[in-house]
Amino acid sequence: MRKNIVAGNWKMNLKRDEGLNLVNDVINLLPSDNEVEVVFAPSFIYLYKVNKMCLNLDRVSTASQNISKEESGAFTGEVSAEMIRSINVKYAIIGHSERREYFKETNEDLKQKVDVLLKNNLEVIFCCGESLNQREEKVHFDCIKNQISESLFHLSSNDFSKIVIAYEPIWAIGTGVTASSDQAEEIHKFIREIIAQKYGRELANNISILYGGSCKPTNAREIFSKDNIDGGLIGGASLNAESFIEIIKSF
Ligand code: PGA
């Protein structure tokens, strides 16, 4: 079912104590009437511990920042879906633009990752988004449609319902430049529309679509007020408990 989610993507930041203190602080600052699902996406090496800290809490869960497309075997340095499932992690983020750009992940790779995640009963936060060039050349709608259709549209309706989409325009990630709430809403509406065309309106209305890219306490309320924006995937502003909490309280 469609729900409001605020996920903190720590990327390759925070040492052990910094990360664990952050989680503690966020948990302590969460309002008692919190209705937003809060997700921490730490580095793999803290995932087990952070997940344990969240296990008995309502609406607080964890995500891995990536996952191997392979199921198991001789893939030195990789982490499998089965492994993170075995420590009861709920989500995996895949397709982040940094993975697409620096690690050359393709739509086909992501299709394999989605399949291996769903097979292991994990839920997926699937990132998509265009570059500045693509926006200037006005091919951003095509770019997003291709990312979604090539990696996700082979799924059954039942499987697709376990996907959360995160729209993250690359030009807004870590740059301080945010998409305006109208720019973001335009794309979110488009994403819901292409899902509706493929899977029907009811399913499309139940999918959570998050915005990511320089989302912070000062702009979250405006962004989250839009009809098709169900929360955020937060990078920099998730590394500080006060700013992350402010964003969580922005609905
Ligand atoms: P940012 O990152 O909030 O630091 O722009 C968002 C993301 O990359 O998920």
Protein architecture, described:
45% of the residues lie in helices and 15% in strands. The model has no long low-confidence stretch (mean pLDDT 97). An 8-stranded parallel barrel has the order 1-2-3-4-5-6-7-8, surrounded by 6 helices. It is of the alpha/beta class. Helix 3 (81-86) links the parallel strand 3 (60-64) and strand 4. It has helices at 16-29, 44-54, 81-86, 97-102, 107-119, 132-136, 140-152, 157-160, 181-199, 201-205, 217-224, 241-248; strands at residues 5-9, 37-41, 60-64, 91-94, 123-128, 163-167, 209-212, 231-234. The protein has 12 helices and 8 strands. It binds 2-phosphoglycolic acid.
Outline the biggest β-sheet. 8 strands, parallel, barrel
User: Strand tally, please?
Assistant: 8
Ligand roster: 2-phosphoglycolic acid
What would the principal axes of the Cα set say about the shape?
Answer: globular
Count up the helices.
12
Q: Kindly state the mean pLDDT as a whole number?
A: 97
What percentage of residues falls in helices of 4 or more residues? 40-55%
> Any low-confidence stretches, pLDDT <50, length ≥5?
none
**N-to-C span:** 17 Å
